[in-house]
Design goal:
The structure is a homodimer.
Chain A (H helix, E strand, L loop, with lengths): L5 H23 L4 H12 L11 H20 L3 H6 L1 H25 L4 H10 L6 H9 L6 H29 L5 H33 L7 H19 L4 H11 L9 H22 L11 H20 L7 H10 L5 H12 L5 H25 L6 H6 L1
Helix pairs in contact in A: 1-2, 1-12, 2-12, 3-7, 3-11, 3-12, 5-6, 5-8, 5-13, 6-8, 6-15, 7-16, 8-9, 8-14, 8-15, 9-11, 10-11, 13-14, 13-16, 14-16, 15-16
Chain lengths: 392, 392
């Protein structure tokens, strides 16, 4: 008898309370709360105590959560600011993709692995997953800093490059031939989308902005913003980019009106409610038992390379801005996520990548995911507003 | 290849935009927006054009949506205010349960149907589904009115009575014997829960309230409130009540601090995002083709009885307050929902209720669901704040 939603409510309750309680404990220990939420997921999820298995429904709610994390970050990023750091952000993204690929590829070849497997490991080391960084920067209230703008801008380019690399290795896995036409279409779509969002969309919003207030529906500004957020998230995913990049753009085009429309507290409320499910879900996918396995030595080397190569690659174009912003951007771009796992999975399923190599990639994502938040918090400790700085 | 959440995002986008666009059109026609959202669901759902089949995940998001509608309504209802209307609310609930049951039962017996089937139809006519009314009152910003308090208070008692009646008819369906011990436990749990929430819980919140601000986590007040909302929704569902009643209590215990903690815009944002999925889902379950079937005459009579009996039952104790509040409360308690359908389904599955009688109950829920919002809006047109009243 369909008597009620107790079961889902119980899981939501358990995840929310566990994530936030662990977050509070971590904050008390001067560590980022988001790390606590991830650790709660690792502890209670399938690879930990097994209290909670993240179902499809929970996974969907988690994906909505990270969409709102980036939507919120976008609301604090005005298009003009993003254009101003555009050059720098593109350099950061390109070098931050090239270095990890070359180092990952080179090390695997050096170990004597076949070229095809080395390509996959290199590709898996490329794509930054910006959700964690956006959350840490938002918690520290430093989204307005120069380094934060460059990280978010670079994440857009990084996502495009990562998508192309994924298309290349997927073609590689399927038969080995590169479809240049397909790649060109992908590139044109993604670049066109990004350029449209940055240069044209804000003007459209400027035009329609007075009409939104005339709608009869209550909270019409919030509803229009939410509709655009869902639309651009879907569109980005549809053309092969990350949904969160679309959500970031959606926030950005409304950034100039976020205050007037009182969007920040209202979207912030949604983010606050949904985001913990995402970070918990990330944690629940971290198999901490991998840390005891035979692959440990290689996995540690690959993880170190993943860290060093991203920090150097993303840092190099930043050197002129001083070492502090160099490190901030390098560490901000550190976390790897879904794309790395998808690349490795494609390789595994096509038989090119060995299960032990897949485990190495999983290990690497875990290490970069766990290391970035505390280091980032440390690097930004002086930028944070007084109340937060006192807790750091 | 798990390349992205496009499909779910597309469904969410379609539902959100369709619901809100229909809502805007209805507001423009001086009809309640929520009715537009329900009609959008009926038009695009499985019984309409079939563009969207409400999946388990969408259903879960919808259930979260109505939880937040009642949580928001609770945040605007101080415990003291609820206690003040307590007597009146209980009278409204009791008479509002007794009249529909007796009229429904009586009419079916009069038609010559067996007693067992008449019991089920009577029981299905009892329970009010307060989600729609709470949303209409919230949209009109009249939650502070006397009639709104009485409706919300009566909904609590109505839910307890409806739960007991459901337990009785379920026992009836299973074997016919009433388990008095089981019923006593259910009653004690529900009454104890309600009394605790109204009289004790607000004092506990008053005690812990200064400590919440000392937590290191950002937005700690919102997070504590959301945790309690999830907890009480789960607990209410666990003891057999409606989850939304738990959510309403959760809002109520924080009502005294809603302003200080800036909860209204932040919880309001969540409600604004999630609620349309609930009202769309309600609509998608309305099978409008029923309106052409043979059962139409009986269904129309039963629907009329459902309206008249609820308005008279809930109105009688209100007569001393003037005819306007009498009608407001009567119409506010009109919509039937899940409980009616569950009662009818239990009867259908046990063979006591014929499929044609089940269709009558579905028809009756549809009629009461669709009629209440516009009439309620009309009855409250003079209480609404200036800007909204101008649109009415």
């Amino acid at each position: 008898m369909p008597l009620g939603p107790e079961h889902l409510l119980f899981e939501l309750l358990l995840i929310f309370v566990a994530a936030k309680a662990a977050g509070e404990a971590f904050e008390w220990l001067r560590l980022p709360g988001v790390l606590g939420e991830i650790v709660a997921g690792a502890a209670l999820g399938s690879y930990g105590l097994g209290w909670i298995h993240v179902s499809d429904t929970l996974q969907s709610i988690a994906e909505l959560g990270v969409i709102f994390v980036l939507f919120s970050a976008g609301l604090e990023t005005r298009p003009g600011e993003l254009i101003r750091v555009g050059d720098k952000a593109m350099q950061v993204a390109v070098a931050g993709v090239a270095f990890p690929f070359l180092l990952g590829f080179g090390y695997m070849k050096f170990r004597g692995d076949p070229t095809s497997e080395a390509v996959f490991v290199g590709a898996a080391m490329v794509a930054t997953s910006v959700g964690i960084t956006a959350r840490v920067l938002g918690d520290l209230r430093v989204l307005a800093s120069q380094a934060a703008k460059i990280i978010l801008g670079a994440a857009v380019f990084d996502d495009i490059l990562g998508m192309l690399l994924l298309a290349i290795v997927a073609g590689f896995a399927a038969g080995g031939r590169l479809e240049w036409l397909h790649l060109s279409v992908l590139t044109a779509e993604a670049v066109g989308f990004a350029l449209f969002m940055i240069f044209v969309a804000p003007r459209i919003v400027h035009r329609i902005h007075p009409r939104v207030a005339q709608l009869s529906t209550q909270n019409s500004s919030l509803i229009v913003a939410l509709s655009i957020c869902l639309f651009l998230s879907w569109l980005a995913a549809k053309i092969g980019m990350a949904a969160i990049i679309g959500a970031f753009f959606a926030g950005m085009v409304f950034a100039d009106y976020a205050e007037e429309w009182n969007l920040l507290p209202r979207v912030g409320g949604i983010t606050e409610f949904l985001a913990p499910f995402f970070f918990f879900a990330i944690g629940s996918r971290l198999d901490l038992r991998l840390f005891n396995r035979q692959v440990l030595v290689v996995a540690t080397v690959v993880s170190l390379l993943a860290i060093v190569s991203k920090v150097i690659g993303c840092g190099l174009p930043m050197l002129s801005q001083g070492w502090k912003d160099t490190l901030r951007v390098g560490i901000g771009m550190l976390p790897r996520g879904e794309v790395a796992l998808i690349v490795a999975l494609v390789g595994l399923q096509s038989g090119i990548v060995l299960p032990s190599t897949y485990a190495i990639v999983v290990f690497m994502t875990a290490v970069t995911t766990l290391i970035a938040p505390p280091v980032l918090r440390y690097l930004f400790r002086k930028e944070a507003p007084a109340k937060i700085a006192a807790q750091l």
